[in-house]
Design goal:
alpha+beta; 6-stranded mixed barrel; 14 strands; 56% helix
Length: 385
């Protein structure tokens, strides 16, 4: 084996310029995998974090199938307070309506909540682009999404009219403008829970109750417990809430996997072609090595080792490029109108996965040229045939 290592190293040193192209191809393929997978992780993690921050509790309680609203809200809140492991809860009322300002009008989603309770479950009310958060006793103020403000040309302190589902209207003052990075940025207006309940005669009712647990990993266990205690049929864990979107993200992961495969295929072709050409140019040397006693398996091992040497160098460079590129893009995200920004995230496992996949691809690409070298006829090889 020492002879195999020696010849493989010497052969690589003699073909330094040629093998630089292989190293570059391997490095680019490895970095490509790290950065693209980092982007997918970044998009997925950002979505999950924003959802948990603004739109979901660890457990969400919805009305039973036959009901429009959760009835007996006060009793259900008392039961939640008596459950160990429940840290906080926040009832919400969700409605459709319209917001009018001067001569313009826009269809909106109305979200009514109690600021003091909401702040214990989510940080939605801190997502203020300008202005101030909604206060507990402020029944005259509203928060509107930044895109809604842009479309209606409203600003802080302006008075706008909300037309509720049942045709009731009321004038509100804009206290703040929201930017959450979620779908609610499109056309959401937040008002005080008590004000909405009074306006629409929805006392002791809610559309949903967000529940925060001391340990989110126990959401499945607590979901069943809460369902029994509150006699509610429709109780969802946070994982179920984001399931549909995560399934969509899986499609993007498959697309990224195809892009990665193209990059790996390019690297594999480079390795295979250059090693094959190198073997054809060294037929006489291979014949002489066989003539002095080198076995077929040893010749094959020489070129497999060469590929491994090149793979290690290329992967190390690719890991460095991938790490640097991911960190740079993480610090300089791409602006996106709906989400605010898109950026990759770096995790150590990205290096391991990319390195392993690339190395296996390089070895696989080297097998055929190495096999040709190992099976080469001694006499024909010496004569250069």
């Amino acid at each position: 084996m020492s002879a195999v290592f020696f010849y493989a190293r010497k052969d690589a040193e003699k073909n330094r310029k040629t093998f630089i192209f292989i190293i570059i191809a391997i490095a680019i393929s490895t970095a490509n995998i790290i950065i693209l997978n980092g982007f997918m992780d970044g998009v997925t993690d950002d979505f999950l974090e924003r959802t948990m921050e603004t739109s979901s509790g660890h457990i969400n309680i919805y009305p039973n199938e036959q009901d429009i609203y959760i009835e007996g809200l006060g009793i259900k809140e008392q039961k939640l307070e008596g459950l160990d492991g429940v840290v906080a809860y926040s009832p919400r009322i969700m409605l459709n309506g319209a917001l009018s300002y001067k001569e313009k009008s826009k269809s909106i989603k109305i979200l009514a909540l109690e600021p003091s309770k909401e702040n214990r479950v989510t940080i939605l009310l801190s997502k203020i682009d300008s202005g101030e958060p909604l206060k507990t006793n402020d029944r005259d103020g509203i928060l509107i999404s930044y895109r809604l403000a842009d479309e209606l040309k409203t600003k802080l302190g302006d008075e706008a009219t909300i037309v509720f589902e049942k045709g009731k209207t009321r004038v509100f003052t804009i206290r703040g403008i929201l930017r959450t990075g979620m779908a609610m940025d499109a056309n959401t207006v937040i008002i005080n829970f008590d004000g909405a309940a009074e306006q629409l005669n929805l006392h002791n009712k809610a559309s949903v109750i967000l529940v925060k647990l001391s340990d989110e990993t126990l959401s499945g266990q607590y979901g069943n417990k809460i369902s029994e205690e509150l006699e509610m049929q429709k109780v969802k864990e946070w994982k179920q809430e984001v399931e549909s979107v995560l399934s969509s993200l899986e499609t993007f992961k498959e697309i990224f996997a195809i892009i990665n495969a193209v990059g790996l295929f390019t690297g594999a072709v480079s390795v295979g072609v250059i090693l094959y050409i190198n073997i054809l140019h060294k037929r006489r040397q291979i014949g002489i090595l066989k003539a002095i006693g080198m076995k077929d398996m040893q010749v094959l091992s020489v070129y497999i080792l060469e590929a491994i040497f090149l793979g290690i160098i290329g992967i190390l460079i690719g890991d460095a490029l991938g790490y640097a590129g991911t960190k740079y893009l993480e610090a300089h995200p791409f602006p996106e109108p709906m989400l605010g920004s898109i950026a990759p995230r770096f995790y150590t496992y990205l290096l391991y996965d990319a390195s392993l996949v690339t190395m296996l691809t390089v070895i696989f690409a080297a097998v055929y040229p190495a096999f040709i070298a190992g099976r080469m006829n001694i006499v024909k090889a010496i004569w250069g045939d």
